Amino acid sequence: MADLSPLRRRMIEDMTVRNLSPATQRSYISAVSKFSRYFGKSPDRLELEDVRAFQVHLVCISWPALNQIVCALRFFYGVTLGEALIPERIPYAREPRKLPVVLSADEVVQFLEAVSSLKSRAALTTAYAAGLRASEVAGLRIEDIDSARGVIQVRHGKGAKDRNVMLSPQLLGILRTYWRLARPRVYLFPGRDEDHPIDQTVLHAACRSAVKAAGLTKRVTLHTLRHSFATHLLENGTDIRIIQVLLGHNNLSSTARYTQVATDTIRATQSPLDRLSLEVTPPG
């Protein structure tokens, strides 16, 4: 870090001591650098009005990308510069109220059978079977598959939190077959270098190829498998608080969104009209 500016070095140190993931650190540094380049000044010389102007400039980008930049700037001003009052005055973009895309059970089978690579098919099957994020699937080690206890240990999930999820007996059989054929040593799904995990971009590319090969018309991403996992559990009667724990959500409100797409649950819910003794006859 000898060639880093003192300000950048300090921000990196601030993120490191707070155990932010390497990916989050790279994202934050990139965001602050873009902010600085836009005005042609060091970011510590820019003020709240500059932040506002930068947000207006970025208003056309997606809300997750914009909010990632907001998180970076709030961290930079609040932690690295110690300006306690500024972060609360940097607003997040309002999340569009869109329902997540969910696959039916038949579509899940259609999708997974269209994945051509053995490793990618096993990884994407794991993502659906356990409701894992792309980073969580990629980071799985062989030792994380606890067949004796019937759980998968997810290490360093979102927010650097560990959690356990169920190990489906069917998934265990699939992973055992995969292991016999691929013989991974450290990571369950290694990259080209056996000592490093598979690159998430490989999984995303496999997902796109499978969607095309399966002929699915829905806009499916790897995260769609996680949405489908949660929705299918809810439709099968799993308590929403259990689903919250399995997904690693801090707030129940994040999990509750799946009640809006659980069509089996919605369809099975009795209308209050059905409790009435009512006959509707045409006016005579």
TrEMBL record:
**UniProt-listed InterPro entries:** CB, DNA_brk_join_enz, Integrase-like_cat_sf, Integrase_catalytic, Integrase_recombinase_N, Integrase_SAM-like_N, Tyrosine_recombinase_XerCD
Q: Which domain of life is it from?
A: Bacteria
Short name of any one Pfam family annotated for the protein: Phage_int_SAM_4
- SUPFAM superfamilies in UniProt: DNA breaking-rejoining enzymes (SSF56349)
Name the Gene Ontology biological process terms: DNA integration; DNA recombination
Core-binding (CB) domain span: 2-81
Which family would the database say this protein is a member of? Belongs to the 'phage' integrase family.
- Protein name (Swiss-Prot/TrEMBL): Integrase
Taxonomic path: Bacteria, Pseudomonadati, Pseudomonadota, Alphaproteobacteria, Hyphomicrobiales
